[in-house]
Fold this protein.
Amino acid sequence: MPLQNQSNEQLMKMLHNIIGHDDRARAYAKKMQLYNIWELRNKAFCSGQNVEVMSGDGLLSAFRYNVGDGGITQASKRQLILDHILEAPIPPLVNKEYTEKWGKPNSPERKRRLIRTLKGFVSGVYKRTAYNQITLSRAKSHWQEDIDYLEKHSLSSH
């Protein structure tokens, strides 16, 4: 099936499958094809066309970024996903305003919003008293580790 006929969820699964592929040149070419499709879908979505919206609470969950005990414990894997979030066109998510507020791929605006979102997760930990504090502590540690990573790496390194 041609890539343009794949759902956004299928494309995301493909992106995750090619992330660790041995043939780096082929993986990069496939990633760029996926990004081109998302760019076209994003433009159509933001111009008001009826486009399939990807499921999920937001950008990080759409890219399958998750932390803590049930999440991705290896920092390098989480940070690779963050790199993709920084560089990829956003698939149609939530609504036009939400999608547009993330800014363009590889933009300082995208990086700022990503860092701000992760910092919001960290500060929200203190408001969640009903959850297991050990689990929340691990999640907070992961978020902080990823914030530090984003703050230390410039967009030009992606």
